[in-house]
Amino acid sequence: MTERPQGYLPQDRPPLGAMVSLGFQHVLTMFPATVLVAILTGFDVTVTLFASGLATVIALLGSGMRIPMYYGSSFSYIAAIRNVTFPAGATATTPALISLAQVGIIGTAVVNVIAGFVVRSIGKARLDRVLPPVVTGSVAIVIGIALGKVALDMATGACCGGANSAWWTVAMVTLLATIVFSVYLRGRGLIGMLPVLLGAIVGYLMALVFYPGLVNFKPVGAALWFAVPNFSWPAFADPKAWATIFAIAPIAIATIPESTAHLYQISLYIDRVAQEIGRKKLEIKKLIGLNLVLDGAGDGVNGLLGGCAGTNYGENNSLMVITRNYSAPVLVAAGVIAMLLAFVGKLGAVVGTLPTAVTGGLAIYLFGVIGLQGVALMMAEGVDFFDPRQLAVASTILIVGIGGAAFPGGNIPIWGWQLPSIATSAVVGILLNLIFLIFPPERYAPAARMGEMRVTSK
Fold first, then answer.
1. What confidence tens digit (pLDDT) does each residue in 116-126 have?
2. Which residues contact 190 (CB under 8 A, 6 or more apart)?
3. Contact at 8 Å (CB) between 342 and 108?
4. pTM of this structure
5. Which residues fall within 8 angstroms of residue 346, CB to CB, at 6 or more apart?
């Protein structure tokens, strides 16, 4: 009798029944975050679901089934996309604004693909000089903290003209439940990986029982069981197309280190399983350039169809670590299942009944976590904040990005232009870092003086 394998490597194909069940588990894992991003940005839920599945399948095939990743919507893009889909004062978006935002998402695809080819040709070390942790980490902080007002507007109802105690109560219950689940269920298998979904369910039930006026089921009754997702084409001809690209595309700067970290982490675990079951290490971490190109391909799919900008998902990586299942065919099955679910019209309608107060409660926690991930990145990379150069880059990015978000629409009025705050902060940080690379302070000040500057800054 053949001994049951202790894990599946990327090219392993489990039996059909196992492939379907394991694939559905991946869909369940990515679903809460991917759908929540669609809700927060105003994108169609079913289109986003379909695009995530298709992007995953294309990426897997593009990697020759070597990189087992699921591609879902990224929280990093929420602020920049909302500034397009919800202009200052708007409480709802329009198809025209969604199509305009799609142009910016195409721009992120181009940035990721270019970064991928650059890494393949010059290596990651050189790319890190242009995009050091102090830049990517600071931009991540800006992305999260700049969304703070958005989160509170949704939690209080200020965003929708319905501000009252009911909204805030439901939001706070949702927030508390999500925090409790994320802290006390950690490490408890699949359920420990779903704190956002569980928190949303608690908030939803709270609204249904105590504040039923916050939930509207009429769209569910009107929705069809089978419906083609409302795909849309990017508005390349819109006069604001180039401005939108500049507003959204630079955010890819923050997702590049995230995507790279996911690849390195999953590579480590895959090689560990391979070693334990007596097979050759795969070392997929060497495919970092290809991984970024596939990220770009995924955003290209989203931009063309009407889905949210995304990245490969750490949640699904964690699921693979827990189950020791790194099978690429299983992830293909997950992508196909996600695409099929997108044609269930009532699914999107049910998701649409989630009260804004609930998403506001979730957003308070999630947006804060995005910002702190930037802090964690800089801590892990040993960014020296006693170095005047690092201080200059980080402080400028933070003030331009967070301060600029306070302007209407998150756009800073400079020289007659309306510059998107987050993208502008990223570009300013990159330019400052380039200045220090081209004109290194060590060339103009004795080493002793540089040391004195650091001591003084302490």
1. 998 888 877 77
2. 25, 28, 29, 319, 322
3. no
4. 0.72
5. 220, 223, 224, 225
